[in-house]
Amino acid sequence: APALALNAIELAAPTPLLPLPTLSFSAAQVATVCETLEESGDVERLARFLWSLPVAHPNVAELERCEAVLRARAVVAFHAGRHRELYSILERHRFQRSSHAKLQALWLEAHYQEAERLRGRPLGPVDKYRVRKKFPLPRTIWDGEQKTHCFKERTRSLLREWYLQDPYPNPTKKRELAAATGLTPTQVGNWFKNRRQRDRAAAAKNRSALLGRGFASSSTYDEDSADSEINVDEE
């Protein structure tokens, strides 16, 4: 199989003077070539290999179900900007968990790119959250586990990022953050209030330590503790 894979990869290389031969490998051999090319990161050669496969392949039905081939087609579609084709592949076939992380990244990045094109500007954290909410991961590439944990981490990351920009958000900004995170405006306001208090306390302890009052050991700021006071499951 490795030798066949190498031969197929060589056939997928550019041949400007000669047409690509008609390949007639088994489904397993095609899968091996797809995996090898995908792992190499050479999307152009992967695309050429997929293109070289005969339309009337003797095992076409098996290829249509082969995860390595489907994943390769998804990668090629993404890099070619054929997002509709990518979405169709991901939504119509159930993939193994080992493929989820990569395919989830393709799904999200494709939707981000489309949103940026429509808006004519890069997306901010709130924009990306809204895109994820509008286009949730299909169950074919997501097993539903760790949803709450991931949501909490995204919520914390979003609040931290906005805090660095403006630790005193006005009511309009609080409502916007609430809509983006799924929290209430009151929860958002409480998080910013608690974070400001903790920052002031940490700064005071650091000043005391610099003055030699022995507070150096207690000046560590626990960012996760500051965030833990938000109950993201609260309605």
UniProtKB/TrEMBL annotation:
It comes from the Eukaryota. SMART domains: HOX. Residues 142-202 form the Homeobox domain. Belongs to the SIX/Sine oculis homeobox family. This is Homeobox domain-containing protein. It is found in: Nucleus. GO terms for cellular component: nucleus; transcription regulator complex. Residues 144-203 bind DNA. CDD domains: homeodomain. PROSITE patterns: HOMEOBOX_2. Residues 216-235 are annotated as: Disordered. Keywords: Developmental protein, DNA-binding, Homeobox, Nucleus. One of its GO terms (molecular function) is DNA-binding transcription factor activity, RNA polymerase II-specific. InterPro entries: HD, SIX1_SD. Residues 221-235 have a biased composition (Acidic residues).
